[in-house]
Amino acid sequence: MKKTHKTARLLLILAMALLMPFANHAQDGSLMKKLKGTWSGKLKVQNKELRLDMNISVNEADSMVVTFDSPDQGVLDLPTSKVVLVEDSLFVSAKAIGGNFTGKINKAVNSIAGSWHQGGMSFPLTMVREGKKTSLNRPQEPKPPFPYRTQEVTFPGTAVGIELAGTLTMPQQEGRYPVAILITGSGPQNRDEELLGHKPFLVLADYLTRHGFAVLRYDDRGVGKSKGDFKTATSFDFANDAEAAFKYVKKLPEIDSAKIGFIGHSEGGLIAPIIASRRIDVAFIVLMAGPGLTGEQILLLQSALISKTEGADARSIKANEKISKDMYMVLKKNKDNVKAAEKLRIMINAFNKKNAKDTSYHAMSKEEINAQIESLTSPWFRCFLTLNPESYLSKVSCPVLAIGGSLDLQVPPKENLQAIEKALIFGGNSSYVIEELPGLNHLFQTATTGSPSEYAKIEETISPAALELIGKWLENNVGK
To answer: Could you tell me the residue ranges of all domains in the chain?
Structure first.
C-alpha cells in the first residue's frame, strides 16, 4: 500500500477495460473541428513519466469522438464515455477506468492545460498537438494470409450457460495432428492472451502450426465471443473450461486423439497440471512461468521483487509484506465476505493513519479501498491464495516441460521451478525438463529488468529462443 504500489495500479488500470464510444455535441462547431487530431501529454508520477495521447475526431452527426492511447502501456484506442466542450473548456471521461481529463484550450488552439483525475488522485496534464497517431511496432505478430488452415470454433463448457469460442489452426496438408490447447494467465483474457499491445498466443499458435502442430486457443468464459460469467469463476472453473476444450478436440477427425496436451502460461501453468492430474489421456503439458508455490507465497515474492525493481526502499517493502500477510490471514480466517471486508477496511484505514506523516506515502482513497477489498474477497482470489500446485503436479504422469524467465518478477523462476521439480520427483515422474531461460521476463520477452513496466515498451512478443525450445521439446516428446 505504499505509494509505489498505488501508482502502479493507476498506470495499469488504463489497460483493463473498454467501453463503447459516446459523443456529446459541442457548442462551438468551428473550435471542435480545430481540435481534430492527436494530442499528447505526460503524466508525472513520482520519478516516472507516463505518456497519454488523446485522439479527437468528428463523426457524421458533428459530434466529437475521443479515444485515449497509453503508448508506454501498449494501449491504443481506449474509448471514452463522455465528451463535453463548452467555450474553451474540455471535459473527457473514461468511465470504465474511472478516469477523466479536464482542460482549458488556449487561443492558438495548440495547447490544452489541465489535469487527469483517477482513483482519488489528480495529476497535472498539458496536452499539445502531436504530429501523428501512435502505432505500436509488434514485428512478430503474424499477418494473413497464413500457410495453414484457420477455423473459428465453438464448444460447450462443462457447466450450464458456458459456451467457449476460439480459433483452431492446423497444417495445410490433410492428416491427423497432435494438438496443443493454450490456457491463458490470470485475469480476463481473449484467445490471443492479448495484453499491453502484445498477442502472445497468436504468435505461439502461429509458430507451432507452421511447425506441424494443431493449436486451439479460446476466449476465457465471459470474454470475447465466449459466454459465461468470468467474475464468479475460480481456477478450478477455468480448469473445467480447459477440459471441455480437450473433450472437444478429441472428437475431431483431424486430431490424433493420443497426442492432445496443454500449454499454460502463468495461471494457465497451474490449470494444466490440475487437468493432467485427473486425466491419464493428457499427452503432455508445457508450463510457461507456471507456479510451483501457493498463491500467497507467489504474491509476497512478487510484491517484494517488483517494488525493489521500481525503487522502493527496504522499510517500505517490509511494511507492505507485513500488512499483506495480515490481510491474507483475515481472508483465511473469515470465510464470510461481509466480516472479512469489515476487518480489511479497519486494517487499511489504520495503515493509512500510521503512515499519514510520510510525505512519500499516498493514502488510499475510499474508492481505492473498496476496489481493493472487492478484489481480495472475490472467489478467484480466495481460491488462488491457498491453492497448492504440488497437490496436482505430484499426480502428473505425462511428459512435462516447465520453463521460466530469469527476469520473471511475477512468478520468480528459482523458487517456482524448484518447487515444480520437487513435486514431479515426489510423484515419480521422471519424464520432465525444467529450464530457466536467461534474460527473459514473465512474458518471455528479452528484457532489461523484468519489471512489468517494461512489457509494453518491448517490441518482441515472445523470445525466439523460447519458441524454439517449446517446438523442439514437443517434436521430441510428442512427434508430428
So the answer is: 3-130, 148-294+387-477, 296-384
